[in-house]
Each structure stands twice: as C-alpha cells, then as structure tokens.
C-alpha cells in the first residue's frame, strides 16, 4: 500500500513550553487508532508529520484538529484541517459518519430533515429514543465517548456533530453541561499550574464549582489556593515586621505546606523580632534603674545577656550599637568604682620578671590583656590543627599551661586577695546547704530567698568575667597589631603579626 505524507505547520512561537510531554502520547494513540499510521511532532521545524495511507491520514484529521485546539490554544487551525469546515454540509456529513475519536468512517446515511411539526403536535409528542444505529444514536455515543476522554476539544467537536445530526435537545443540554465542566476543569488546571495570583485561582475555582467539576479536582485546587494565600500572607507579615502577625502567618503557612525556604526565612525574622523586643524591654528596665540609681550587678549581667542574644539573632546593627554603648558606659563606671577598692598588685619574683613579658596599666587592663592572649592562643591552636600544622600545634599546646596560669593570676589580682575568694566560696556553699535544708523542711519561701541569694553570689563572679571579656574586646578594637601583642609570649606575638585574619576570629570569640 502506498505511503503518503502530510506535514502540518504550526508556528514555533505558538508551541507552549513542555507541550511534548502531553502531546506525544496523544499523537501515538491517535496514530494507533487509525491503522498504526505515524504521527510525530517536530518542534525544531514547528510541524506535525503524518505518514501512512492517504485514507487513514484523512480519517485522522478530525482527531488531530482536536489535539491542536487543546494543546496549541493560541495557534490558528492549519489550512489542511480547515478544508472540510469551509463546506458546512460536508462537515455535517463527516461529523455524523466519523467517531469523535477519529475511528474508522461509519457506513451510515444521513436522513433527510423531517417536516417541522406544529406546536400542538410537538407538545403532545413523546421524545423518541434514538436507535443505536441511527445518526442521532451514533452522535450520542460519540458525545459520551468524548466526555469520557475528559478532553474539552474532543467534546466540542462531538457536540457540533450532535447538533448537526438533530440529537434530542435534552441530550444536547446535558452535553453542553459536560462541555462547561471540562472547560472549567481545564481552566482550573491551567491556573493551578501557573499559580500566579490568589484572585485568579479563586475566580477559576468558583467557576469550576459552578460547572460541576469533580470534588477531587476542587479539593486539589483548594489546597493550592490555601498554600498560595498563606504564602502571600507570610510575605506581607515579613514586610510589616510585626511579631504577632508574623507568628500567626508562619503557623498558617506551615500548616498549608509552604516551601521550607520561605518558612526558614520567616522563622529567622521571627527570632530577630523576638530578640529585638527582649532587648527593648531590657533597655527600658535599665533606663528606669539608672534614673532611680538602683543599677546592680545582676541587672547589668541580664542586660549584657540580652545584647548578646540580640546580636546572635541578627537584630538591627544600629540598635545593637546603641545597646553596646550603654553597656560600655555602665562597665566603665563600675570599673572606676572597683579601681579605688582594689589592692595594689604584688611584686613578682625576680625570676618571673626575667621569664615573663612586661605588663603595664591597671589590674583590669592586665587581666584583659591576659584574656586576649589566652583567647588568641586557643584560636591559633585550632587553626593549626585544621591546617595539619602539627608542629606549631604542639608548640602552642606546650605554651598553654603558662598562658592559663598568667591569666588566672591576673584574674586573682584584679578580683582581690585569695581570702576574699575563699570567703565568697564558703558563703556560697553555706547558702546552698541552707537551701537544701529549707527544701527538706518544705519551707519553699525560705528556699526561694536562698536561691535568689545564691544566684546573686554566682553572678558577682560572672560579672567580673564579663568585664574582662569586654575590656579585652575594647583593647582589640582600639589598638593596632603591635599594641595587641604587647606582653604576649614571643611565639604568640609572631603568630599575631603573621596571621592578621585570626584577630577576626578572636573578636568573635570575645563577644
């Protein structure tokens, strides 16, 4: 049998993205239903190629036209497929004799139009059930099959043939409802795929519900609509920057399955807003205490903790800078008060003066310098291990006990005589003993008072540590490298000059 070829050209600009994914199986199915002719898409040429016997190709044209209308909505119907539509009578005859799916032509005759009945006869007459082999019966079967394919284009063609065959109006009305349903379902699917706006999906969803689209498709659309709505609400809450609104929007977005990336960004902003609120409250409390002259060590430690948490959570830099300025002012005032009370440093032995670098300045500065030296040693040793410079790591490890001992000695000199520290430790242990006894007696009021006293004694030493770290951070920020390494052991001073990038790591550790 001779093989003919037919090329249907469709401009490339009308080829939707990823159209081949859905089109190729449909073309293959259409070709198989017409004697296994070849129907292939050639997107590079902007063409559809049909190859097979000429009568098979002609029989496949209606089905191919339906596929083009469905998958290329913006393209005009090619001229090769419009010839029959130019002759209404021929189109009617072909529609009646051909299945909407492009099956083999049916050997039926189109009956002549019956004389129009009078209104009385039409009212009295009972609609006759069309014979299965009649034109109306075949058209009704084609309508049902087209509806089962869930293709609006195929149903539209079958409906035109049904009108031409004179199918009962009730059947036509039912088919019109099917067409509205399939068209609405197609529009809904397209809107869900684009997911451009909530308003578009909502409008399409309402139309689909009115047209009687299946509940499963409506539920799927509701899920997409809810996810898109919660995502837009989350973006608005992030832009508004209000903690309560963002917290509520984040909970709704998580319930609707919004992408993890959007949730992570919102959670980070929520943490930042919460830390900002806590820092604001801590600042207001500190201002009130300053005005009343009641700033104590515990309130200062609490404010310093709020500043650190806010910096970690990514609170605005201007707010952090203002809080740090206020904290530094408090630290400076307390240092001035403590400087008058501290005893003079004891004179080191001649042997220690020969082996240790010189120390200068007041006691807190010495402690800050030793704290800076110890922190630099730890950061330097960590980097040496990461770079597998084990010789340097071993030298630094051997130096570490002396650096720690120097830092502890500077701390002791700054905090006062050892007898004071021992007295504090004894007092703390006594408070803990009394607290345990109060708990055993179930005297919880007394236990609460002792717990507060215990925390106050513990915070006193913690505050001294915080002062030393803050002083070391200021020394690092306000001096050049030579000033920083002044008084360091020679090996550490050399590393401080050779590796300036390490100072950024040290600064982060101190803060």
From TrEMBL:
Annotated Pfam families: UVR
Every UVR domain range: 427-459
InterPro entries recorded: UVR_dom (IPR001943)
Region ranges (Disordered): 334-362, 414-437
Protein name: UVR domain-containing protein
Species: Symbiodinium natans
């Amino acid at each position: 049998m001779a093989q003919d070829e037919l090329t249907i050209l469709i401009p490339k600009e009308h080829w939707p993205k990823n159209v081949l994914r859905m089109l190729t199986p449909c073309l293959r199915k259409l070709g198989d239903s017409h004697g296994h002719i070849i129907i292939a898409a050639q997107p590079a040429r902007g063409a559809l190629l049909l190859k097979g016997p000429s009568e098979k190709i002609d029989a496949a044209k209606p089905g191919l036209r339906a596929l083009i209308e469905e998958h290329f909505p913006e393209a005009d119907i090619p001229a090769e497929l419009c010839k029959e539509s130019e002759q209404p009578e021929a189109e009617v005859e072909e529609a009646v004799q051909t299945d909407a799916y492009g099956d083999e032509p049916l050997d039926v005759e189109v009956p002549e139009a019956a004389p129009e009945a009078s209104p009385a006869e039409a009212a009295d007459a009972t609609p006759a059930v069309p014979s299965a082999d009649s034109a109306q019966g075949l058209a009704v079967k084609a309508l049902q099959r087209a509806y089962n394919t869930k293709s609006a284009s195929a149903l539209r063609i079958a409906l035109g043939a049904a009108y031409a065959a004179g199918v009962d109006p009730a059947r036509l009305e039912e088919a019109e409802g099917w067409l509205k349903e399939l068209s609405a379902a197609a529009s809904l699917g397209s809107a869900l795929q684009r997911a451009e706006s909530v308003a578009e999906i909502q409008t399409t969803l309402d139309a689909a519900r009115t047209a009687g689209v299946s509940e499963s498709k409506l539920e799927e659309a509701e899920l997409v609509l809810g996810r898109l709505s919660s995502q837009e609400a989350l973006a608005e809450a992030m832009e508004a920057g209000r903690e309560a609104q963002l917290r509520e929007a984040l909970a709704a977005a998580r319930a609707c399955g919004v992408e993890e990336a959007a949730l992570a960004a919102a959670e980070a902003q929520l943490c930042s807003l919460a830390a900002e609120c806590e820092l604001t409250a801590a600042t207001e409390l500190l201002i009130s205490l300053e005005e009343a002259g009641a700033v104590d060590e515990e309130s200062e430690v609490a404010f310093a903790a709020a500043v650190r948490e806010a910096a970690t959570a990514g609170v605005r830099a201007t707010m952090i800078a203002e809080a740090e300025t206020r904290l530094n002012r408090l630290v400076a005032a307390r240092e001035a008060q403590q400087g008058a009370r501290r005893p003079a440093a004891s004179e080191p032995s001649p042997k220690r003066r020969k082996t240790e670098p010189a120390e200068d300045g007041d006691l807190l500065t010495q402690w800050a310098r030793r704290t800076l030296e110890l922190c630099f040693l730890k950061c330097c040793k960590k980097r040496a291990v990461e770079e597998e410079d084990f010789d340097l790591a071993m030298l630094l490890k051997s130096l570490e006990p002396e650096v720690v001992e120097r830092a502890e000695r500077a701390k002791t000199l700054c905090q006062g005589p050892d007898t004071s520290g021992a007295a504090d430790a004894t007092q703390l242990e006594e408070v803990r003993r009394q607290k345990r006894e109060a708990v055993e007696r179930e005297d919880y009021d007394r236990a609460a008072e002792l717990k507060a006293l215990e925390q106050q004694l513990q915070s006193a030493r913690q505050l001294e540590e915080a002062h030393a770290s803050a002083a070391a951070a200021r020394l690092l920020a306000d001096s050049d490298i030579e000033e920083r390494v002044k008084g360091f052991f020679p090996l550490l001073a050399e590393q401080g000059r050779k590796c300036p990038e390490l100072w950024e790591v040290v600064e982060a550790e101190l803060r």
